[in-house]
Structure formats: C-alpha cells, structure tokens
Amino acid sequence: MLGLLRRITQEVTAAQSLPAALDIIVRRVRRAMRAEVCSIYLVDANTKDYVLMATRGLNADVAGSVSLKSDEGLVSLVGRRAEPVNLEDAHIHPSFHYLNGTGEERYRSFLGVPIIHHRQVLGVLVVQHEDKRRFDEGEEAFLITLSAQLAGVIAHAEATGAITSLNSNAISGSDFRYKGVPGSSGVAIGRGIVIFPPADLDVIPDRRTTDFDEEIQDFYQALDAVRQDIRRASNRISQHLSVDEKALFDVYLKILDDNSIAGEIVRKIKEGNWAQGALRQVIQAHIAQFNRMDDPYLRERASDLRDLGRRILSHLQEKAPNVAERFSEPSIIIGEELTASMLGEIPIDKIKGLVSVMGSGNSHVAILARAMGIPTVMGALDLPYAQLDKVDLIVDGYLGKIFTYPSEALIENYQQIVDEERQLEEEYEALRDLPCETLDGQRLSLFVNTGLSADVARSLDRGAEGIGLYRTEVPFMVRDRFPTEAEQVVIYRQQLEGFAPAPVTVRTLDIGGDKALSYFPINEANPFLGWRGIRVTLDHLEIFMAQIRAMIKASADLHNLKIMLPMISNVAEVEEALALIRRGYAEVKEEGYNVKMPRVGVMIEIPAAVYQVKELSELVDFLSVGTNDLTQYLLAVDRNNPRVADLYNSFHPSVLRALLSIVDQVRGEGVGLSVCGEMAGDPMGAILLMAMGYEVLSMSSTSLPKVKAVIRNISMKQAQDMLDEVMKLSHAEAVTQTMTRLMREANIERLIRPSKTTNVD
C-alpha cells in the first residue's frame, strides 16, 4: 500500500501540467482500486461549481465542459460536508443528480472523498462501480490517504497552470493572484528576479532565452568539464577497483552522451529554456522515472543521476554572472526560501520587494525586511516561483498578496497606495525630533533593534532613543568562522559609539532554532526546544567569555552598555551567567580599560520565565520581553512554518494575558521593563503594551515613525480603554477586529497604512 501511494504521488509530482497530473491520478487510482470509474472534479474558483476535469470510465470527451452547481449532486455534497460519502446505490440518494453526457447512469455504487488543502476544498475524487455494493473500509481509507497526499500537489499544479508555459506569450493583464503571509508592510510594483542557492537543481527556475547557441555552448562546456572530472576520478582510484566497478564510470560517461540526457537537454534549450532550467527539467524527469521503478537497485540510480546533474549545474554556474550583476534596476526578489546571506549579495538599492515561498511573517528574513522597509510576502506556498523570472509583479505586503501579469487598472490602483505611502513618510519625517508622548503627556521611549552597522545611521535618522536589542548573531552568521575577541570589540564599538550616551542593549549570542552558523552546525530533531541561546553559550565558555570581554572592552569610556541574556528558562542560568560576566568585567578592568560594570538583564521569551519573573527581577537590572518567541512557545506554533502561520498571533488572548501578568508581577520591584519583539513595532501592539505599563518599546527603525505617529495622536486614557475592551475577548481575530475599529474611531488608522489598502481585492 505505502509503495503504491509513493509511486502515484511521485508520478503526479513529475507531471508537466495540471491535466497530465489529473489523468495520472484517475488512471492509477482506477487500476489500483479495480474500479470501473475514477473521476476528479475541481472547484471553479469563480463560480464554485464542481467541474469534471478528468475521468477514466465516464465519457472523457466532456471533461472540462460539464459541471455541478455547489449545491447539486453527490459530488457537491462531499465538498459541502468536507468528508467522504460512501453509497451502495447512489441513484436512490436524495442528492443524486445525473450529469448529462457523462454516461454514468449505469453506475450504482459511489465513493467520493474531498481533496482539501489548507482547509479549502479543492475538489472531489470519485470511484464508481456498476454493481450495488458499498466500498469497504480499506478502499475508503486508501482513497482518503491518497487524497490527503495529493492535495498539495494538485494545489501547486493549479497554481502553476495559471501561469503561461515557457513557450507561450506572456498574458499581461491577467491579474493572477496568490496568497501568502504579510512579512513587511508596503507595496512593490516591478519585475521579478528569481534567486536560488548554488548547485541546487530543485530550485532552478525556468527562464526564457532566445540566444540558443550561447546556452548550448555553455552547456557543452560544462558537460566536457564533468566528463574530465569523471575521468580524473576514475584514474585516481582505478587501481583499487575491479573491472565491473570501473565500468560504472563508463556508464556515467554514456549517460552524458548526446544520444542520451545531453541530447534531451539541448532539445529543451532549443524549445526556449536556458541551460540551467533545461538541465533541471530533464534530470528531474529521469529521476522521477527511476523512483517509480520496483527494483531497489534501479531506484538507487536516481541518486547517481542527481549527482551528475549537480556537477553539470555547478560548472554552468561558474560561468554565470554573480547575483549582483543581474540587477540593472530595482527588482522584486523571489526565492523558494530566501535567506539573509542571499540578500547580502544584492545591493540594497536594487531590492524593491521580496517574496519567499517558505517562511512566515516572523522568519528572520521578514524581520530583516521590516528593518530595511522592503515590502515582503512570505509563505506563498502555491506560488509557481520558478516561472516568474522577469515577470511583472505586484507585492502587497499589507495583505500578503502577490499579483502576476497585473493589468493597467490594478497597477494604477496600487500606484495610488504607493503615492499615499510617500505622503505618510513625509508626515513621519516631521515627527523625527519630537518626543513620543500621548496627548495627555504620558511619555514612551522608543528604541530600535539592530543587527548591522548600517542600522545605526538609519535608526538615528528616525529618532531612535537607544538600542533595545543588538543581535550579535548577525556578525557571527556572515562569517565562515567565529569572530575573534578583537574583531568583536570593533563590531560592538560601532553600535555603542553610534548611540552614546544613549543606552545600547547587546544580546549575547543567540544561535540554534532557526539561526544557524555554517561553521557550527546544530542538528536536532526539534531545534526550537533544543540547544539554543544561553544553553549553547554556557556550554561553551570560550565563546561566552570572549563575547562578554569584547562587549565590556567596547564600552570603555562610553559606559552605555547593557548586556541581555536570551532564552532564560530558570534562575540557575542567570546566576551562572552573572558570575561569568562579573569575572569578565574584572579581567577587563585588570587590563586597564576604563569600564563600568554593565547593567544586566534577561529576555522573557519562554513560558517558564513568565512564571518566574519576580524571582528573575531580583537578580537583574532589567527585563525585556521577546514577543516573537514568547508567542511561539505559548501557542506551540513554529513561527517559520507557513502551514501554521495563521495560528501564530501575538494578539491571542493568552499572549496578552501573559504580557499583562509580567507587568503585574514586577510592579514596584524597581526593575526596567521593555518589549523588544515585533509586537512592539506594530502600532496596534504598541498601544496595548503602553496601556499595560511597558515604558520602553524596541522595534525596527522602519516601524518607529509609525508607532510614534500613533502614540502622539491618542491619550493614555484612550489606550487603557482599548486594552480593557480587548482583554475581555476570547479570540485573537476578535482582538484585531476590535482594535481596528477602535483605532478607526480614534482617527489614527490612516497613520498606519494607506486607506486604499483596505479596498484592494
């Protein structure tokens, strides 16, 4: 059973089009279940009708042209219920409706299961027999299992089918729309450029080319280089191999022959794809064929083929221009999984917008995008990104939407939003040097979160009063080794000097989870509950002490350093870290540096810390709530997983109650209390946090002007009234809807986003 499911899924995944995928499903399922009929009905996105898209057993000529209304027939009943319908005699069921032209009148038994993707019914998979008999539990279970596995494949195939194929003319004005997760607010209108990590066949996009001769020449040069690599490898180890084993290298060379894979790749290039895209298409098609084979030896040959493909690709990429050279104008960057290192290769002034298929609104790329003010959509799982190179796009970072081949009317609509954004920026600029205080005189301090040296100037330009979180992992991540203590001193000094005499909070190294160092890999089954943050550095005193000494040395004569400890889950960790910080301070003092013992604080980002806030406050000088991880751990939601992105919500009542509890527990303790998570940079969140009693909010520099504009236009009394109203609610959605209404009534909603964003469909 499992082998059959795997083979069907692999065949469908390898299909070149949606019709081909559907035909494979009905053909294979009919045979596997020994059914007389297998059909697939898909929901029309506009009419909501169930359209017969593919069938084996019914009249295939009517596929695509006949349909059932959303409230008509047994198929729609399956869709409405979102559960299987298994009938011995379908004709006597009150919902039965004969679909003219299909020839199904002679079939009595009926089993239909819904095809569901992300809670949305995409269609219904049906099998039928002439005999009156109920399908048994095993047959029903098989069809349900298969449907669940194929749902994502069909969803992706539907999305891919909406885009023109490589050889078709672009359909301008089509307004194809894809949904993702808002990553960074704003709108970008421009042309897409697909980027991808090196030597990874699976993420190579299709790209049109008209210079066939040059692409073919590049391909043959790469092919010759791989042949030479194989011959060298064969010669190096030939004395250790038998005749049969040496023959394997000859097999590799034959695979690369013009009469085999090489010839297929050249044909794909002549059809209009660039060499790398043609290579991916052919290699993946052959790998899929090998994977479908029953013989385990032959299935293993798929890995050999993938290796050859990667070798050719690496040589092709050696000749290709580097990423930065591809950008002659500002563009919208698209990738399967964008990373900070990928963005680091592109000049910032050439990035107009970002779209990542993987990740969520709280992925680190999204946080980085917000810091740079780049409109971003994350988690666009069904986006056919490989086909969007040099395609016109609109990225709506407010609503998490991407439009491909936009019409003039849609472009004009979104251009008005861009113009309104510019007007808001001018309003923000006028507030730069004004304090962040409410209409009734309540003062709120706005700090910034930084990670790069460039963040300092950008933050000061926007009126930041200090650094509430400097992420030291960023300079660690951009290197291929641990930075030395001396190198760290220079890095930290830039931040401390740039803001002196204002306070700068430097967080000790916070790696693990979704923050990896290439030279210090941490491989765990559940990294977010594993070795990360303070747990890593306390286990590696050489890393921790070098960092502590570097921080303290960097603060010489400035005296504005604050040290913050991440991922604290118990009092013992704080006691151990404090002893080490005091030791580091004494060592630096002995070396003759003019330094003062820095204030030390902890991040409250684990539920355990929430319930020990009072004990922790007795040990440290300040507490800073990290709402990103706190939300993640309270709701048991991986904030980087787009499948559960809709469950990650900092306005969940449980999160709000935890935040209020922290304030209540430390009231009167004389300890500093701030918030440095992304919630602080959301004007809606800032209002609620201020009303709770937080006096310092730290955020990206891009968010700071919006938060200041909102706070300066309401009173503390209004904020507290808003808090009182939402704390009674039991749904996160109700909290955001209520706050949106209250902010509209207070005439401050327009300060957050252009008014037209709420009117764009």
Automatic annotation (TrEMBL):
It catalyses: L-histidyl-[protein] + phosphoenolpyruvate = N(pros)-phospho-L-histidyl-[protein] + pyruvate. Its EC number is 2.7.3.9. Its main location: cytoplasm. Residues 17-164 form the GAF domain. Transmembrane segments: none annotated. Belongs to the PEP-utilizing enzyme family. This is phosphoenolpyruvate--protein phosphotransferase. The keyword RNA-binding does not apply. The keyword Metal-binding applies. It is an enzyme of class 2 (transferase). Its cofactor is Mg(2+). It is found in: Cytoplasm. SMART domains: GAF (SM00065). It holds the Pfam family PEP-utilisers_N. One of its GO terms (molecular function) is phosphoenolpyruvate-protein phosphotransferase activity. Residues 407-434 form a coiled coil. InterPro entries: GAF, GAF-like_dom_sf, PEP-util_enz_mobile_dom, PEP-utilizing_PTS_enzyme, PEP_util_C, PEP_util_CS, Phosphohistidine_dom_sf, PTS_EI-like. Keywords: Coiled coil, Cytoplasm, Kinase, Magnesium, Metal-binding, Phosphotransferase system, Sugar transport, Transferase, Transport.
